[in-house]
Specification:
The chain is α/β, with parallel strands linked by helices. Helices cover 46% and strands 17% of the residues. It has helices spanning 40-43, 52-71, 83-87, 91-102, 111-125, 161-168, 185-196, 213-222, 239-250, 254-258, 264-267, 270-283, 296-305, 319-328, 332-348, 350-353, 360-374, 381-391, 399-410, 419-423, 432-448, 477-485; strands at 4-10, 14-22, 28-37, 76-81, 106-108, 131-136, 141-147, 150-157, 208-211, 236-238, 288-291, 456-461, 464-469, 493-497. The strands form three sheets. Strands 8-7-6-9-11-10 form a six-stranded mixed beta sheet, with helices on both faces. α17 (360-374) packs across α18 (381-391). 42% of the residues are buried.
Length: 498
């Protein structure tokens, strides 16, 4: 198994190098990402060829990628090219030049495969089961229909930000913040509409997973400034919010667009990107949109890594949690002991907390994240770990699940969560009593079980939670002292038996 794999994505707008590091059979993490604007689509001449001068400029970018790959001792490199290079009449010449100068072999993929790769990434790295993926690129836009995490259909549309700019721009964008290219928006809109009307009817009515730079840019505009989780991956919003952003962008100057949290290079083509986004959303009768932070590159890596498992992770396998455990857990026996105790406590206390079994899994996720955070900070680990939940990309978690984990972990040190603190925040995922009991169970286990050689039994007798060490070989003086330090719900008492 290659320890490190490099994926080079030669897109119509950008060239990207993404290096992944394997941590176990199925665990992995992105190690390095380098991205540069290449604008291949804009470089194609009237004969749909890449001029020799441009080919050499682009080859220099790939040569730089090759240097990074070599410096990081990457064992496997996969390079794919999408729409613009696919359309170039002299793509064979370009491929030969790259192979000669860098030793890297380019695979030009079809639009359908491009759509499939985006779907593979979404299936494995987002929690949704039924959806349509939409990947807006520079020269094409890909759609995939997924039902029960299985790809049903894939299509590619010849509309993209660079292609539309080239077709409908009346002047070039300069560097002046107040300067904005003018477009024939009526003609562009009719063109987009005519193409999107070709989308088959069976794509209609599903949640839309939006992939690509334009989609992420829209998400950053829509996401509230003080929102708890400033991570685009998994963020959800409605079609009405997209319509409002579309209207706002279409009547804004470039300077105003830059003030919307849009990067300078993205500001040059965001109007075309959001036009495609809005029209596809309308055509597909979408009401719910989920932003993806992953796409073709992750999909191609996963296609290669999961080739012996039908392109899917095993059932009941959580890639985000497993990757954290692989990298940061050093006492696996302690983690296993804590997980067993969390499960037992949840069941023993069920007559009191009355929480649905579906939320039991969050206790197991939380202890993995908590113990991962312990690797970096032994003091206030709950604070550090809760920050990890809200500010890093943990694959296969929705934003609602992140909020559950945030509250569960943050209030699992010594103090119980107060209802006033919980209700003071918006977008709460569960009832206060549910988060209250989940965080207490997690708190109890974190403070009780700190040695992997002890195994505890739990029993609820009336309102007394009895805790017994099965082996009864060592003193429980530290455990008893720890229980005196933590808040205990008024509904129960704790008794440690020696």
């Amino acid at each position: 198994m290659p320890k490190r794999t490099a994926i080079i994505d030669l897109g119509s707008r950008s060239f990207t190098l993404l290096i992944f590091e394997r941590s176990s059979r199925f665990g992995f993490t992105p190690l390095r990402e380098v991205k540069t604007v290449a604008n291949v689509g804009a470089r194609l001449n009237s004969d749909h060829e890449l001029p020799l001068k441009d080919m050499h400029e682009l080859s220099a970018i790939i040569a730089s990628f090759a240097e990074i790959i070599k410096s990081l001792k990457v064992r496997k490199t996969l390079c794919i090219a999408t729409s613009a290079i696919r359309d170039a009449q002299n793509s064979g010449e370009f491929k030969s030049l790259i192979a000669k100068k860098t030793g890297i072999n380019i695979k030009v993929i079809s639009g359908e495969l491009e759509a499939k790769l985006g779907a593979i990434a979404a299936i494995n790295l987002l929690p949704q089961y039924d959806f349509v993926t939409m990947d807006i690129g520079g020269s094409s836009t890909e759609l995939s229909l997924v039902k029960n995490k299985k790809i049903v259909d894939c299509i590619s549309l010849n509309i993209g930000t660079v292609r539309l700019k080239k077709m409908f721009a009346n002047q070039e964008v300069g560097h002046d913040e107040d300067e904005l290219a003018t477009y024939d928006y009526d003609a562009a809109t009719k063109h987009i509409q005519a193409i999107t009307e070709q989308i088959p009817a069976h794509f209609l009515g599903y949640p839309l997973i939006s992939i690509g730079g334009s989609a992420r840019a829209v998400c950053k505009i829509i996401m509230p400034k003080r929102y708890l989780i400033p991570v685009v991956h998994g963020y959800e919003f409605g079609a009405t919010e997209l319509t409002a952003i579309y209207d706002k962008i279409m009547r804004s100057s470039r300077k105003q667009i830059l003030h919307m949290n849009i990067s300078a290079d993205r500001a040059n083509d965001i109007s075309m990107g959001v036009s495609i986004f809005a029209q596809i959303t309308k055509q597909l009768q979408v009401s719910r949109i989920i932003t993806s932070g992953v796409g073709v590159r992750e999909g191609y890596f996963l296609k290669d890594m999961l080739r012996s498992s039908n392109g899917l992770f095993p059932s009941n396998f959580h890639i985000g949690i497993r990757s954290l455990e692989d990298r940061f857990i050093r006492d696996e026996k302690l983690l296993l002991s804590r997980k067993k105790s969390l499960t037992k406590l949840f069941e023993v206390l069920k007559p009191i907390h009355k929480i649905d079994d579906q939320y039991k899994k969050y206790l197991l996720y939380a202890i993995s994240i908590f113990q991962s955070g312990l690797r970096f900070n032994t003091h206030k680990t709950n604070e550090f770990s809760s920050y990890l939940v809200t500010n890093s990309t943990i694959y296969n978690l929705s934003h609602q699940e992140r909020m559950i984990l945030f509250w569960l972990i943050k209030y699992s040190s010594k103090k119980l969560l107060k209802e006033s603190d919980y209700q003071s925040k918006n977008h709460q995922p569960l009832e206060y009593s549910e988060i209250y009991w989940l965080s207490f169970i997690h708190m109890l286990v974190v403070n009780l079980i700190f040695c992997n050689t002890k195994e505890f039994a739990f029993a609820l007798r009336g309102n007394v939670l009895e805790i017994t060490e099965k082996q009864q070989k060592s003193s429980l003086i530290i455990e008893q002292m720890q229980m005196q330090k933590i808040d205990i719900p008024s509904e129960i008492q704790i008794q440690i038996n020696e």
